[in-house]
Every structure is written in C-alpha cells, then in structure tokens.
Amino acid sequence: MLYGRSTEQTELETLVAAAREGRSGALVVRGEAGIGKTALLEWTARTAAGHGMRAVRVTGIEPEADLAFGGLTQLLWPLRDHLDALPGPQAAVLKAVLGAEPAAGRDRFLTGLAVLTLLADLAEDVPVLCLVDDAQWLDQASAEPLLFAARRLAAEGVAMVFATREDGFAAPGLSELRPSRLDSQDAARLLAEHEVAPVLREEIIAESAGNPLALIEFAAGQRGRPAGPLHSQIADRVLASFRTQIGRLPERTRLMMLMAAAEGRGDLALLLRAAHLMGVGLDDLEEAERAGLIQVTGSAVVFRHPLIATAAYQGAALARRVAVHRALVEMAESPDCRAHHLAAATMEPDAGVALELAAAAERAGARTAYAAAARLYGQAARLATAGQDQVGWLARAAAAALSGGHPGQAAELAARAEELAAEESAQPGRPSGGERRDVVAELTSVRAAAMFELGEEEKAVGLLLDRADRVAPHQGAAMLRTGVTYAWFTGDETSVRAASRKLAALGHSDRMAEGLAHLMRADYARGLPLLVDSLARAPGTERALFTAMIIGDDASAMALAAAEVARCREQGLIGALPQALQVLAQTQVWAGLHREAEAAVAEAVGIACDAGLQQRIAWLNGVPARIAAIEGDESRCRRLADATPHLYRPTGDAVLGLLELSMGDHESALNRLETAWSSPGRNAAVLLPSAPDQIEAAVRLAQPHRAEEPLRRLQAWARASAQPWARAVALRCQALTGDDETSFQEALALHEQGGRPFEQARTQLLYGEWLRRARRPGDARAPLHAAMETFARLEAAPWTARARSELHATGGSPRAVNPAPATPLTPQELHVARLAAAGHSSREIAAQLFLSPRTVEYHLYKAYPKLGVTSRRELSRLNLS
C-alpha cells in the first residue's frame, strides 16, 4: 500500500484515464533516491493493467549509462515483430538499434520518430502505458528518442511516465510531478506495517526526514542513525546502510553481488558463465536473496533497489572490480558489451584494447549514438600506446560530441587534441605539422562550429582565418568559406575581406565571398552582381539559399528553402531541419504567408528543443517578432525582439522600428534604426528592408535630411539587385521625399510583378494619402481600398485602421473585407490540412511532420469544422494557399 501519495496517484490516474480516451500525455516523476518513484510507477502499471492497457517498460541501468542504445533495446526487443509495419526508414533505424540491420548513419532524431510511430501503432489495438524508470541512467542514445516521442504525443492513446533523480535527465517541455516526503502520520503507518515497535518510531521518523526508503531501511535496523543535515545525506546514509548489510554477507556472496552489479542487466546466464571463471556460482546468491537484497528468477537477477547495486559495486576494492570486468569481457556476447567491460577493466595503455574501443566508437557513430561514440573515442585515446592515432581519436570524439548537440564538450575535446598534437610534433621522429594537416583541418572546423554554437562567433571566425594556411589548400578554402559566412553574421567587415583575399591567394577565388566583402563596404554595385552570378553558378547548394536570401530574391529563396525542407523530411534529417524551416519561414513572411511561417517556426522550435540548440531557438524569434510588428501586437513583438541574441540585435531593432512606426511613434522608430545602422552588428541583409521605415519616419517628423542616407543606400541596393520589389520600394521612398507622383506610379507598376504584398500595400497607402492631400479624393480611393484589403488579409491591424481612416477622409466607404475566420486553424492544423488536401495519406503526413498518424487524424478532426468540411474529398476542393 502507498501512504501519503493521494495527490500523486490522482495525477497519474488522470494521465492513464486520458490515454484510455485517446488523449496522450507524458509526465516526469522527479525526486531524491528512495522517495517512492518506482513504487508510483508500479502502482500506475497495476492501475493501467486493470483497465486493459498494454504496458511497455524501460529501466535505466547505472553500469550501462554509457552503453549506446542499452535502454532503447529493452523497449524494442519484445516489440521487434512490430517493426516491419513501420515506414521503411523508421523500421531500418530501429532494426539497426537491435543489430538486425547494418547501421545506416541516419539523422539521430529519426530514431525518435520511429519510436513515436511504434508506440502509436501499438495503441491502435489498446491504449499503451510506457514506463521509464531510473531515467537518469539512460544512455543518451536511448533518452533522446524517448523524449522526442514524449514531446510529440497528442491523440494516440499513449501515456509515458519517466521516473528520475533530482539531477540528470533534463526533460524541458514535459510536466513534472515531485513526490513529497511523508508526514509523521503516514510515516508512522508505514513503520507499523513493517512491525516497528512504537517506542522506536519517533526516532526513526525524525532520522528519515519522511523519505520512505530511509524509513524502511532504518526500520530494518530497529534504530535511528546519527543526526545531521538530511536533505543532502539521505541517499548517502541509505547507501551506507546497504553497504553494511552487504558487508555482513559471506565473501563469495559479495563477489556474486559485485558481478551482478557490474553486469548491470541481470542476465543470469551470462552472469553464471562469468562467475564460473571467478570460482563462484548460483548457490552463492542464496544469502543475498534471503536478506532481501536481490531476487533471482529463472533468467534474471534483480536488485531490490538500484542503490543496493551501487553499494555492491562501490563497496568493492578496485582490483576486485577490474577482475570482475575482465571475466565479463570473456563472456560478453556482443562487441559493444565487450568494449564496455574492456574500458572498465583496463587501467594502463593497451594497443589492442584501444583499437577495440575505437571500433566500438565507429559503430556507435554509425548508429547516431554520438554521445557513446565521443566517450569511446576518448577512452581509446586514453588507452592508446605510442604510434597509435591518439590525436585522431580525440578529434573524432570532438566531432561526435558536436554532432550529438554538446558543443562545450566538443570544444574541450578538440582543445585537448590540439595540445597533444603540438606535443607530438615537437618530439623527434613524430609526425610533423604538415603530416597532420587533415587532423588540423578537422579540429579547427569542429572548434569553430562549437564556438559559433556557444555564442563565441568572433573567436570562431578568427580561428578559421588563422588556421586556413596550415592545411591543404582545398581544406583551407572550405574553412575560409565558413569563416566568411560567420563573419558576415557578426558584421565583421575586416574578416570578410581578409577571408576573401586569402581565398584568392589559395587559388580558390570565391565570387560569393568577394560579393559579401563589397557589401560590407556598402558597395552594392559591385557586390550584388557577384552574388547573383554565384547563385546562377551553383543554384542547388546550401550557399545558394544563403545567397538568395541576401540579394532579396524571394522566389528563389522560397523554392530553395522548400526543397531543402523536403529533402530533410524525406531523408529523416531532423537535426538539420530547424535552420531550413527558419529560412522558409522568413521567405513566407515576405510573401505574406504569416500562418505558414508561424507553423514552420513552431516546428523548428520543437525540434531545436530536442536537439538542445538553445541559440537556434533565440534566432527563430525574429520571424514571429516581425509578424507581431506587422499585426500590431506590441507586447508579443517586444518580448520576442528582446529575446534576440546580442549578435542579431539589428534584427530586433528592425522589427521594433516597424512596430513603432505603425504606432505613430516616429521619433523612437527613427532613433532606433539610426542607432542600429551605426552598430558593429549591422549588415545589409538584416537592416536594408528597414530603410523604408527609417525614411518614412524622417518624413513624418519633417526632417528630410535624416532620410537622405537611407534613401541613397536603398536606391543603390535596388539598382544593383534588380529585384522588382526592391526597385518599387525605392521608388516609393523617392516619391515620399520628393513629392513625385510619377515615382509612385512606377512603383505600383513594379509591384504588379509580384513579391512582398505588405510593401505593395504600403505603397498603395502612401500614394492614396498623397492623392488625398493633393485634393484628388476620387483618385485616392482605389489605391486606399486595395491597401486596406491587403492589410486586412495580413491581419495588420494598425495599417488597416490607417487605410480605413484615409478612406473615410476621402468621403468614401470602405468595401467589405473578408475577415479572418472566427476560429482560424492553428499552424499545425493548417500544415496538416494542406498536405491532406494535396492527397497525402495520414501516414505520409506523419512521416513528413514528425508526428504519429493518430495525431494527424486528430488535427484533421479539429480542422474540418473550422473549414466547414466533413471529409478529405471536400478538403481537396478548398484553396488553402
């Protein structure tokens, strides 16, 4: 019976009941050792079983915390017959986890999508309860896919419960339940159940501080323990209690318990084979079982509590632990388990062991278990002997850590490798710097990428430029191209120009780098044509997408971004998807597709959370911040803009300038944008679209001299880029400053070629205002009507109000404008509805959006009444563009 857990039981029962009704959910039960987390999981399992639910389980095992996919294998092995029903790439990645197929080197998050689909498929028959105990000891390769699935549960009928210690196993985005300590009344009831004499209860209750395990273990000794600060000591004191109990057992029993703790999985057959080498056997477990420390079944040895295993392992001498691991090495059935025990059993450099660990690291990396690969390569380097590739192994460890989303660890490993390489090159007969150019290039690229991810952009640029001449020319050119990109984002003109010169010196002249160097000096006439030519020469590359964004070629940028998103979806490259979605969302904002952009950003944020890309989440704020500025949502705009990283502060200033302009606060808008243009972080791609805002604010303040410089920049950019929208906006600003109707008319003609509807509506609004002031109200009404309709469609409330006011001033009546739906689709519903309307099945949509098919159906069920349809056939007739 559970005492003092009514609140926790109610919450868990609610989770289970929701799953039975088809609503999924996930919960983390977090607390100190012994607080009763496992007991709550067992109670939840019994409750679910009573309602006919299916339970699947995973338990983190401390000795296997660094064994790739050790936890996930527990989940998948009993379900292996269900894998063939999954989509091909998902089935392949889970079979690779089980070793049934060769590792495919796929994106690490595809495994999470496969787990989600598998749980959803199981729930098609009966609701599913997935219990994960001791999650703090899960290997990262197992923890990541389980969390990925948990965050995407919606309408599958799946409940997931994770139990974990206070520290470790970060699970942002999931609800948490923290079991409380037992009060004195519940503690007394628990002690009474264990037949503790009343005279001893008060002392034990005081010493246990309400921790259920401490109550039970202290009660077993029928006396309290020395008083002390218990919050931080209970686990240690219970551990000491277990050590004392183990210490009373015969030596042969202690050895068997040590072997069981070192083996970790409780595999009785393997344990007995290894025990034979140590001269012990099954009979030696009898005393431990009689003492209630372990339970032995026909196939497994199970410790009553994980702390007992910890006590059995930590209480043994190092020499004894090494001997046990060596015995387990001899009996290991898989090369990965063998490598795991080899690492624990080897204290001194050993060439053979190092090679086995490096091979295990390569296998782990191929299965996207990057954390395990980094650790194994590091261990291989530690045990390497003279002549082995110690530096190379550390370099691969750094690259694996970076791929696994741990830039800090990657930077540390790369620094260690570089120090060792420097020591090696100084020794007679060791490889020279020239012979290690490949390692230098790899380490430099890893360190720079880690620095950039950690917010040390200037250091990253400096490192790449400094090392480019220490490697082979083609490697140096690749480093310099990366350096150019980083430097552009930091607004570092000197480094952009230096990288361009170095590329030319290496014989790798780069038109994109040259173009960016000219743009940094505001030489648009020379820079933009180079970028346009670069885009034409390599239209399908990642750099082409970057180039199209810079030159304002919205159509090309959107097409390239959509293709990149599609490629990531098709190949399961989930980790690369946030950046592609961010670029797509930016182009969608320019095209007036606000809801689509918000859907893309929401998906990107969710994936970035899973990948631990916190800085990417901050970068993504710029897209919804601009939407909020256009729509006049001041509080949301300011909140998002303030969260923009310091490096990209001009992005925040640009959207805030637009917001303040729409609110009529022209002085603040102008001051902000002028300050942004004088900041080191400025660059044309970010701030040039705000030049029209700067110019309009200056005109509104009757300070035309403050519009001269931004107008000059804008006109030069428009001429060089030859983009119709840019030329139209430049003409509008020229008309605004020069009271020139011809420029207005030419601008409107160019807008008709397409692109940036918000800017077209602003041109129409300003022209209508000019016509009204020129006492031509009849002529003003048509452009004002057109502007108001576009603003209304974009939900640009302050701009709509301004256009409506101008129309009233002309004596005209605003035409009826189709309002936004009273119950608009959520971004996710819109995305699902569009794919369904295009003829994709729920399973295909699920694979593209990294959802379960049941969740896709749920979103369609919610979307149908909002759209006034009842089926996919009717949905296909709607215009959802």
What does this structure look like?
This protein is mostly helical. It has six domains: 6-177, P-loop containing nucleotide triphosphate hydrolases (Rossmann fold, 3-Layer(aba) Sandwich), CATH 3.40.50; 184-232; 246-340, no CATH class; 341-526, Tetratricopeptide repeat domain (Serine Threonine Protein Phosphatase 5, Tetratricopeptide repeat), CATH 1.25.40.10; 722-818; 827-875, Arc Repressor Mutant, subunit A (Orthogonal Bundle). Helix content is 65%, strand content 4%. It has 47 helices and seven strands. The protein has a five-stranded parallel beta sheet, with helices on both faces. Strands 6-7 form a two-stranded antiparallel ribbon. Helix 11 packs across helix 12. The longest helix is centred in the middle third of the chain and has 20 residues, at 407-426. The two termini are 58 Å apart. The model is unreliable at 223-232 (pLDDT under 50). GO terms for molecular function: DNA binding. Keywords: ATP-binding, DNA-binding, Nucleotide-binding.
- For the termini, the CA-CA separation is 58 Å
Mean pLDDT across the residues is: 88
CATH superfamily membership of the largest domain: Tetratricopeptide repeat domain
Major beta-sheet overview: 5 strands, parallel
* Count of distinct structural domains: 6
Tell me the β content: under 5%
Radius of gyration: 32 Å
CATH class category of the largest domain: Mainly Alpha
Structural class: mainly alpha
Q: Please provide the count of β strands.
A: 7
CATH architecture of the largest domain: Alpha Horseshoe
Domain HTH luxR-type: 818-881
Organism: Streptosporangium brasiliense
InterPro entries: AAA_16, P-loop_NTPase, Sig_transdc_resp-reg_C-effctor, Tscrpt_reg_LuxR_C, WH-like_DNA-bd_sf
Pfam family, one: AAA_16
